[in-house]
């Protein structure tokens, strides 16, 4: 029984992780009112409330982790 529960838990973990995706690009613009990040390739992502947009500037190179189903950015890392 324990092995079956462990297998189900592991499968659930990987299924949840499958919905996350990453993209890298250069910030073209940021609309803090709507929390939209626009990249230079024309793609846009709505940042989750937990994402700090205050430190992002146009021209910054970023890696965005987003929910594949909703396209909501869950993490934004500026590359130094």
Give your account of this protein's structure:
The mean pLDDT is 84. Helix content is 20%, strand content 42%. The protein is of the alpha+beta class and 80 residues long. It has one helix at 2-17, and strands spanning 20-31, 36-39, 44-47, 61-67, 72-78. It has a 5-stranded mixed beta barrel with strand order 1-2-3-5-4. The protein has 1 helix and 5 strands, in the order αβββββ.
Reconstruct the topology from this structure:
Blueprint: H1 2-17, E1 20-31, E2 36-39, E3 44-47, E4 61-67, E5 72-78
Parallel strand pairs: 3-5
Antiparallel strand pairs: 1-2, 1-4, 2-3, 4-5
Features:
20% helix; alpha+beta; five-stranded mixed barrel
Summary, kept brief:
Helix content is 20%, strand content 42%. With 80 residues, the protein is of the alpha+beta class. The chain is globular and about 30 Å long.
Helix content: 10-25%
Strand content: 35-45%
What is the mean pLDDT?
84
Number of helices: 1
State the oligomer.
single chain
What's the total number of strands? 5
Category from helices, strands and their pairing: alpha+beta
Series of secondary-structure elements, N-terminal to C-terminal: HEEEEE
End-to-end gap: 48 Å
Largest sheet: 5 strands, mixed, barrel
């Amino acid at each position: 029984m324990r092995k079956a529960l462990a297998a189900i838990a592991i499968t659930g973990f990987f299924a949840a992780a499958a919905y996350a995706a990453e993209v890298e690009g250069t910030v073209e613009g940021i609309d803090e009112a709507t929390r939209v990040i626009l990249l230079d390739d024309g793609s846009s992502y709505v940042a989750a409330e937990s994402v700090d947009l205050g430190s992002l500037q146009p021209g910054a190179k970023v890696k965005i982790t987003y929910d594949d189903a909703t396209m909501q950015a869950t993490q934004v890392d500026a590359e130094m």
